[in-house]
Automatic annotation (TrEMBL):
Comp. bias (Low complexity): 63-73
Keywords in alphabetical order: Signal
N-terminal signal peptide: 1-23
Gene3D superfamilies in alphabetical order: SGNH hydrolase
Span list, region Disordered: 44-73
Coiled-coil intervals, chain numbering: none
Protein name: DUF459 domain-containing protein
InterPro entries xrefs: DUF459, Ester_Hydrolysis_Enzymes, SGNH_hydro_sf
Length: 384
């Protein structure tokens, strides 16, 4: 009897304390297959651990493929014909960049082949480093080109050595030797019947260096024109709006672009393309879709003016004489048809041009050059 009461009281206390838990267990029991009894709760077996939460299988996203660089399809290379006109670009590192620009410009022309012959650090001063007169002689003997384009001089502001003696840059002796070397270079090309287009030098970023290069370019201009070459002046095309050196300027499409490299000497790709654009006109004066049709002519050949030292025509006056003769190419001049160009030897003359006619030209006529006679003297001489 005592045991019955004891268990009854104990059961009431347990039921009172565990009523909430029991209610919760009833909910859990409803969700499980195995039903738990009061005996199991008081003295029963060890409760099994709850089932692990369901594992959600995450879909693995495949990593997007890395964007591949756009494969640039190279432009189709047009094979040059065997009879293509071979244009040799000679000179220093400026010629190296120019040759690449000409290759880009005439890449689609099967009848014109550009041959880069530029040698960096070369010039007409250090012939012990590279002798351009010997090189052009070898190239002429090999008949490796038909038309020559020359741009050179950025390495020539240094002492020149001749016959064991040094001459300072741009002194009288230096200038005479420099022009003589260019003249020998051009005489070889003229004798071989190779037309020559000589490019003047552009302005440079450093003023002292630019001034020296300008004097060197002026010497090249006089020597090349007297040597029968076409001279293309590009100096003003690479100046800024203020008339000074500028690294930027309009490109071939008229857009402002960087024309020069950081050294203030060499051309950028856009600058080299601009020179190639300007060269198109003089090249077309000689090249007509497959052959060089006209050789460069010396406009003063066969005349007394061509043989004289050209005194008193010096400096600007001498340049004007050469421009009147038609040997200097203004960039704004329209191209003349190749079939209408004549050399001095093609013009019939009974006798050489008398220099007296040049000196005796009346003042105001284009060939007087400031040394002619007054018109009233002509009228008095004509009056009986």
């Amino acid at each position: 009897m005592f045991r019955v009461l004891f268990f009854a009281v104990l059961a009431s206390f347990i039921l009172t304390d565990l009523a909430p838990a029991w209610a919760q267990d009833r909910v859990e029991l409803a969700q499980t297959e195995k039903r738990r009894t009061l005996f199991d709760m008081l003295f029963g077996e060890e409760e099994a651990p709850p089932p692990p939460p369901p594992v959600r299988q995450q879909r693995t996203r495949k990593a997007a493929p890395a964007p591949s660089a756009a494969v640039s399809v190279p432009a189709p290379t047009i094979e040059k014909t065997q009879s293509a006109t071979r244009v040799a670009v000679m000179g220093d590192s400026l010629a190296v960049d120019l040759a690449k620009a000409l290759e880009r410009r005439y890449a689609d022309d099967p009848n014109l082949q550009v041959i880069g012959m530029g040698v960096g650090s070369s010039g007409f001063v250090r012939d012990d480093f590279f002798d351009w007169n010997r090189e052009v002689s070898e190239q002429i003997a090999a008949d490796s080109f038909d038309l020559a384009i020359v741009i050179i001089g950025i390495n020539d502001r240094q002492d020149i050595r001749e016959n064991g003696q040094n001459y300072r840059p741009l002194t009288e002796g230096w200038s005479a030797i420099y022009k003589d070397r260019i003249t020998r270079f051009l005489n070889q090309l003229r004798a071989a019947g190779k037309p020559v287009i000589w490019l003047g030098l552009p302005p440079m970023s450093k003023s002292n260096y630019s001034s020296a290069i300008g004097e060197i370019s002026a010497l090249q201009r006089l020597a090349s024109v007297s040597g029968g070459a076409e001279f293309l002046d590009i100096y003003e095309r690479f100046l800024g709006e203020d008339g000074k050196y500028s690294s930027y300027g309009p490109d071939v499409n008229g857009q402002n672009a960087r024309m020069r490299k950081d050294d203030g000497i060499h051309f950028s790709s856009a600058g080299a393309d601009k020179i190639a654009f300007y060269l198109n006109q003089p090249i077309r004066n000689f090249y007509r879709g497959g052959a060089v049709t006209v050789a460069v002519s010396d406009p003063l050949r066969g005349t007394d003016a061509g043989a004289m030292v050209r005194l008193p025509y010096q400096g600007l006056g001498q340049t004007r004489l050469l421009e009147v003769a038609g040997a200097v190419i203004p960039l704004g001049r329209s191209a003349a048809p190749a079939g209408t160009l004549l050399s001095a030897s093609d013009v019939p003359r009974s006798q050489p041009f008398p220099i007296e006619q040049l000196v005796g030209a009346p003042v105001g006529r284009v060939d007087s050059f400031g040394v002619g006679i007054e018109p009233d003297e002509i009228s008095r001489a004509a009056t009986p």
